Amino acid sequence: MATEATTTKFQNSDFRQVPQPPDFHPGGDLSPHDGLHFWQFMIAGSIAGCVEHMAMFPVDTVKTRMQALGSCPIKSVGVGHALRSIVKSEGLAGFYRGIGAMGLGAGPAHAVYFSVYEVSKKYFSGGNPNNSAAHAVSGVFATVTSDAVLTPMDMVKQRLQLGNSAAYRGVLDCVKKVLKEEGFGAFYASYRTTVLMNAPFTAVHFATYEAAKRGLIEISPESADDERVIVHATAGAFAGASAAVITTPLDVVKTQLQCQGVCGCDRFKSSSISEVIKTIVQKDGYRGLMRGWIPRMLFHAPAAAICWSTYEAGKSFFQELNDSTESGTVT
Q: Per the database entry, which stretches of residues form a coiled coil (predicted)?
């Protein structure tokens, strides 16, 4: 009775609901797709990662060939030359050599990536869903953990992408030979470089994505729900392209470390970043540090668009599933 009286007391027509901005969420630290279980973030992220890398794999192959200095059969930095050389020597199948390794690594790595990002974002946001610094820091935490999962398979993938079937017959053969000839450490030879590359990449990526998404929603808040996929794809593409160009030099170093000794690539005494950079500059000048930036940007712009739209769609699916489950439980 007391509750009913209290409720009636405040149901006054003079009190009007205060309109809230599009990004307002009563819980403070919740976003429109939050309220999910940890495993749901992992599944959504895993699917997004697999779709992203499988769809854009041919472009990644071209980038790897261009960045591997002295590798066979690519001798030029030109995109057109790289494309023609792959088609001439291996046919269309050459663009997908190593895709099995990426399939094995992308799913688990992105599951870790997005789940760590969501948990970190909630922790660091301080109740402010528009905290760009929290998005950037959360992205760094996400990439450090996910790179530990992906780096070994990424190394296998890049060695297979060089197209020398005489060196490795497939994923398993590559893993066995690397373990036997170079030891387990070879799988993580580029980990430090990868983290140093992906930390700023992810910080720029996530901060730019969240800011671009918020800006696009503010332009047309009334149609934000109807244009959700377009918003996520556009913001993701802009973020991916920006971050890709900025971090290309370290990506070239990573490729050199992962492909050393294969197809004529240089072998380095250590995984020192400075040593690799010095070798690249001596061989190809400073322009060598930007080798493959065009396919890298062409990869990350659509890849980020695909990944973010797929990930947000997965989160929306689980949100609706959770809501329907809760409604059924209440009923």
A: none
